[in-house]
Amino acid sequence: MKRIAVLTSGGDAPGMNAAIRAVVRAGVHEGLQVFGVRRGFSGLIAGNFINLEARDVGGILQQAGTMLGSARCPEFRSEEGRIEAVRQLGAHGIDALVVIGGNGSQTGAHQLTELGFPVVGVASTIDNDLYGSEITIGVDTALNIALEAIDRLKVTASSHQRAFLVEVMGRDCGYLALAAAVAGGAEAVIIPEMEIDPDTLAAELRGAYQRGKPHALVVVAEGAKFNADRLIHHFAEHRERLGFELRATILGHVQRGGTPGAFDRLLATRLGAGAVHRLIAGEHGILVGIGNSQIVTTPLVDVVANRKPLDLSLFELARVLSR
Ligand code: F6P
C-alpha cells in the first residue's frame, strides 16, 4: 500500500479537521502518499483529489468544519455512481480510502467495500447514533454548545418564572437531548426513544413550579414526535387548560460549527491515526471507534446493520434529579 485517500462526508462535526490532520500526518510518517478528496462522495465521483503533505494540514486542528468540505451525495446512492467512484480511485492510483463520517457515510463506505475497494471508516457525527463507537467525533463539542444555551436560558427563565423549551439536533436519536438534559439540569426531556404527550409534559412542568422552582426548562430532541414546533402549537392552542405559555429556542446548526474542545481533538486524532495504522496492518472493511477508552474496530457490515441503543438509565436519572 502506497497511496491512500481521505474524505469527510455527511454533516460536518467539530473535530473532523483534527481527524484529517491525523490521517495525513500518520500516513506521511509511515511513508504513504496521502490525498484528500474534496466534498465527500461527490468529489470521489468527480475525481476531485488533492495531494496533502504534513504542512498542508497545519493550523486546522483547532478549527471546526472540514477543510476538505462535505456533502450529502444523491449520485452515490446509485450503483453507477459508486462504480464511477471506484474507477476514479483506481485512475488516481489510490490503494485504500478513509471515510470520516456518520451513519450515511459509513453506509457509503460499506458499499465501496462490497465493490472490492479497501475502506476504513472513522466514527464522526454529533448525533452519537453510530454502532461501533461509544462516542463519536463532535458529540462533546455539540453538547457543550447546547449546555451553554441551556445555562443562559435558565437565567432568563428564573428571572421571569417562565417555561422554556430548547430543541437540540440528533436526527432520530435522543442522545444529545438526553445528555444535555442531565448535564443542564432540565425539568423535563423529550426524546424519540421515550415520547411523552404534551398534557403529561404540562403536568410535569406544573409540578416543578409547585415544588418551588423559579423556572421550568424542557430539552426536546428534533426527532421527537412532539418536537419544538408541535409543542409550541399545542401549548398555544390549549393555553388556558395547560395553565402557562411555553417559549422555544431551536438550536439547529449552531451546534455543528463550534471550536472543537479537548475531548474531540483527542478523540479525532486517535481515531484518524488509528485508521491509518489498521490499513497498514492490512485491515479494512471496518469502522474505527472508541470503546472503554480504547480504540476498537467493528466490521462495517455490522455497523450498517445495527442501531446503537440509547442508555435509558440516563432518562431515569434525569427524572430523579429534576425534583
Ligand atoms: O447528522 C448530523 C445532523 O446535524 C443531524 O443532527 C441533523 O438532523 C442533520 O445533520 C441536519 O442535516 P443538514 O445539515 O443536511 O440539514
Please provide a written account of the structure.
The protein is elongated, with a radius of gyration of 22 Å. The mean pLDDT is 96. It folds into two domains: 3-138 and 260-305, Rossmann fold, CATH 3.40.50; 139-256, Rossmann fold, CATH 3.40.50.460. It has a seven-stranded mixed beta sheet with strand order 3-2-1-4-5-10-11, sandwiched between helices. Strands 7-8-6-9 form a four-stranded parallel beta sheet, with helices on both faces. The protein has 323 residues and is α/β, with parallel strands linked by helices. It is built from twelve helices and eleven strands. The N and C termini lie far apart (58 Å). Bound molecules: 6-O-phosphono-beta-D-fructofuranose (F6P). Residues 11, 72, 102, 125-127, 169-171, 222, 256 line the site of 6-O-phosphono-beta-D-fructofuranose (F6P).
Question: What descriptive keywords fit this protein?
Answer:
323 residues, alpha/beta, Rossmann fold, 2 domains, 7-stranded mixed sheet, 4-stranded parallel sheet, 11 strands, 43% helix, 18% strand, binds 6-O-phosphono-beta-D-fructofuranose
